[in-house]
Amino acid sequence: METIRVHPCSSASQLQATAEAGANIALTKYWGNADPDLRIPANDSVSITLDRVRTVTTVAFRADLPEDEVTVDGRPLVGPARERVSRHLDLLRGLAGVSWRARVVSENNFPAGAGIAASASGFAALTLAGAAALGLDLSPRDLSRLARRGSGSAARSVFGGFVLLHTGARDEDAFAEPLHGPDWWDIWDLIVIVSRAEKAVPSSEGHHLAPTSALHQARVARVAELNRQLLDALARRDFAALGQAAEEDALLMHAVMMTSRPSLIYWLPETVAVMHRVQARRRAGIPAYFTIDAGPNVHVLTLPPYRESLQADLRALPGVQDVIPCRPGPGGRIIPNPAE
């Protein structure tokens, strides 16, 4: 990914850029913070940036705006949600020495707030567009660090393909880096939609609850070994090893959620039905593993020869609203001519 520079739509009264970024699915999860203020994750995590679930965001810094205006999927943000975006824009304004407020328009092509990492793609696209509009000359690593300040998993969506997010003792140490490009391995992620509703407890709140679980530290210790297994599985393209590690950590993360105080139970009956179906198909010889982020929707990992039949099988389950088939996709990018 090239260093991002100022967008040609800049003028004397407006600085504007548009960027796109993909949601990612974590194979080992980011859950809980080592530093909540800086959103430094409690552990390293490995993810796949996806090709078909994307966010497009336009940021226009304007001299005539009295405050930031933020619209997501046609709905103006107010209160804490808008303040979170404004705080992130303040980081960029501080680096550029600019005080102008911004108009932000963001569109997702998938359900936001339902556990499909809309905050990851959203804050990655916001960071890229904002930095480009202000003419900031930043490295991909620095862009990932900035994106992390908005949403920890957004650091991963700056890059495409298979990505590693590092924790660290300092802000400078917690960044994402690409492991393998999108073409490294043709894995399918079937996103099984069982609910489009926005979850009652957002991930940002859940991260604060993680340390209240007696299982949190045990999971953090275990994920270090699972990451080693995943890195080896990716290098060897060992799907069974990758799937086993991903499924184990998904269950560990949700065990932490369920045992935090208060407990978080994101699963619906349809979530559990999908998990049972995946395990049944695996017993029948189909290579398939599930993983679940902070929400009720299920990601089912499989290989190309089994994608169509497995997708049809999952779509036929009662309560399944849709299945979105995804592959590893590109990293964030500036869109030079958004109107096109």
Essential attributes:
alpha+beta; four-stranded antiparallel sheet; Alpha-Beta Plaits; disordered N terminus; Ribosomal Protein S5, domain 2; 340 residues; eight-stranded mixed sheet; globular
Can you walk through the features of this model?
Helix 2 (118-133) crosses helix 3 (140-150) and helix 6 (216-236) runs antiparallel to helix 7. This protein has nine helices and 14 strands. Helices cover 36% and strands 24% of the residues. The radius of gyration is 19 Å and the shape is globular. The chain folds into two domains: 14-184, Ribosomal Protein S5, domain 2; 188-326, GHMP kinase, C-terminal domain (Alpha-Beta Plaits, 2-Layer Sandwich), CATH 3.30.70.890. The strands form three sheets. Strands 1, 4, 5, 6, 7, 8, 9 and 14 form an eight-stranded mixed sheet that branches. The model is unreliable at 1-8 (pLDDT under 50). The protein has helices spanning 79-96, 118-133, 140-150, 154-157, 203-209, 216-236, 239-258, 269-283, 307-315, and strands spanning 14-26, 33-35, 40-41, 45-62, 69-72, 75-76, 101-108, 162-165, 176-180, 188-193, 288-291, 298-302, 322-326, 333-334. With 340 residues, the protein is an alpha+beta fold.
